[in-house]
Design brief:
Among the domains are: about 30-105 and about 145-250, Glycoside hydrolase, family 65, N-terminal domain (Beta-galactosidase, Chain A, domain 5, Distorted Sandwich), CATH 2.70.98; about 385-600 and about 630-645, Glycosyltransferase, CATH 1.50.10; about 745-799, Maltose phosphorylase, domain 3. About 30% of the residues lie in helices and about 25% in strands. With about 800 residues, the chain is α+β, with helices and mostly antiparallel strands. Strands 1, 8, 9, 10, 11, 13, 14, 15, 16 and 19 form a 10-stranded antiparallel sheet that branches. Strands 20-27-28-29-32 form a 5-stranded antiparallel sheet. Strand 15 (about 210-220) and strand 16 (about 225) form a beta hairpin. Bound molecules: beta-D-glucopyranose. Beta-D-glucopyranose binds near residues 356, 494 and 496.
Length: about 800
Amino acid sequence: MNKNNDWKIIYEDYIPEHEPLREALFTLGNGYIATRAAAEESKAENDHYPGTYLAGGYNRAKSEVSGRIVENEDLVNWPNWLSLTFKHDGGSWFLLDDVEVLHYRHELDLYKGIMKRTIKFREEDGRETSLIARRFVNMKNPHFAGIQWEITPENWSGKIQIRSALDGTVTNSGVPRYRDLTSVHLQPLEIGSFNEESIYLRVQANQSKLRMVQAARTRAFRDGEELPVNRRFFKKVGYVAHLFDLDCDENESVKIEKIVAIYSSKDRAITEPVLEAKNSLYDAGSFDELAEAHAHAWSELWYRCDIDLKDGNNTQLILRLHIFHILQTASQNTIGLDVGIPARGWHGEAYRGHIFWDELFVFPFLNFQLPELARSLLMYRYHRLPAAKRAARLAGFRGAMFPWQSGSNGREESQVVHLNPKSGKWDPDNTYLQRHVGIAIAYNIYQYYEATRDIEFLMAYGAEMMLEIARFWSSLSFFNKDRGRYEIHNVVGPDEFHTEYPDSDQPGLNNNAYTNVMAVWVLRTALDFVELLSDTRKKELFTDLKIDEDEITRWDEISRNMFVPFMDNGIISQFEGYENLEDLDFEKYRGKYGDIQRLDRILKAEGDSPNRYKVSKQADVLMLFFLLSSDEIENLFNRLGYTFDRSIIPDTVNYYIQRSSHGSTLSRLVYSWVFSRSDREESYQVFKESLISDFEDIQGGTTAEGIHLGAMAGTVDMVQRCYTGLEIRGGILWLNPRLPKEMKGFNMRIRYRGHWIWLHFTQHKVEVSFESGHSPQIEIGVIDKVYELGQGDCKKFLL
Ligand code: BGC
């Protein structure tokens, strides 16, 4: 593996206005904590925002919006542990924005998980200095993070003062749209020092009472020898620092090492965070030692999770960046933490760190690479099953109604009003009606089970969630006598541009095709799960959940008689009445506004509404083709008594793609997937657009507020499952590769039902190597033939 070329992202210029994007893209995390790539010397001002987020570290706060009180739950921005800077005797503290930058290189080594800045700068008085800053957020021991600064005076000698701080005076102010909302979440509790070389800060989130302790040990070295320094302790409310002087000589480097230990009151196996931080720092090795263990942990992750494209271009690099961010959001350190997969990573404050349906796009990767982690993430939902049942009950339904946006305790966290930056007005937000989030959870449970055959999980937790979700869909469905079919009303589909009918004063739409068909899928899968349960477990669950044969019969009945809306042209209608909406003149809007991805905001700012038009933010009907194979769709439609003509698929795709503004990064991904079999060139084109959506921030500013994890993971999945035709069908792992012509080939490993399988694809060949496993044989299907593979077998298939 060449670890130098396809593993490093390098920027060779310092452009202050690009910093917000780079801070998000170079965020370092370990599945427990994440910190944006803000420069150590910077603070939250101008183009800098040094945010630190704890996985699942939420807090609620009330704000007044347009005369009403709203309560939001936010992912808290915890104290800034990065804070490190220097100054000359009598000078001011170093800030990159205040000096002349002579050389700049900012790089992220994805293989080792190390960020590095190499800078040469000149100060007003002519002093030139080189600075090499390295940083990690430890993947091996998630409680450690470290910074190393190497300062070299190029043309001066003299005394400098170092300041190494923990700054708890930070607020949540990373998203301009939220700035009118309450942003203070932290309450300082305690400041202190453990010994001569370490300081600590203890804070508490003011509502959730979640506590965090950060402790920092700062040392100085010359030629590998530790320098004796005289540290001065400085504190003010919520802020603590160590300051010390160093004598510098021209051309002689000094190194500063800041090792930080971070603990929270939610941690496992602790007595109390301050004591744990103290003990950890006491034992902590040097920056290099910790960095080595950290890089080793990363190399193990890469061994499992890399997709080695062997073509050394940007696709390889960005794909690795996407895998890197998935693993920084959730890794082995996340297992058992009671957290879910946030839509924007733990990388910024957009969407407040909430958990949406986006995990649907992340699970396929985790199921095949880190199934033990996928299981833990499903448990996040299981622990919130009581909250989902309560929500259903309060809304007058049965079963489990999972929230569209989920945070700490499973309450619905969606906003009721949302600021439209185009108009400056707070618009009502009815996207919470996306009940289809429960479908995503059910689908993830099913996919996890298929990839792992983890029957213990299914029996203990998975089946219960599936049954409660099925029960919810059953309770939402009602029989329309005139039509002789079941219907589902008052929901919103994945396309968030449509939340109600034009001229209606009630939110919600009727018979969203994606929701109706997938509700049928859930009901049918729940019935299959019942068959999988042992008699004892079935009895237990049926008794506990009070499920009787009548209810099972109703599920079966709905799953055979659900209504699906079609338009006159035979294309599945996004929802009932969609065909009556007006067509929008896309060209007119493009001409007027240029970027029309967020047509909803544009139309609303004009006093109009996207609800009136056939325009979509993202794939809705097409999600069906994304999640289900055409065989599965045909089966479901046959079950419903509809004829499904496969030849309508390309027309359906074209119909909706022409009407999409791609206002969500999830949109292109789905289009790229559904094109993959019919038009590989188009698919690859759209895949490439999807690939750069965060890297080049094609939405114009949203990435800076947090990466789009669903889109990132989705591009990885395009390679892992879509272009390889990897699917589990009938208990067999099928491969049916059709690589885009631009892809010469690639290698990857997958974990499948306890086996590690190494796969190598080229345009004309697939190689399957059965590396190790726990059961004697597995069945692998290649195109249309099934083969048995056992330990040590390696087979090549020509395509
Ligand atoms: C999309 C949703 C998505 C959410 C969080 C929205 O813009 O429309 O589908 O779940 O972002 O990523």
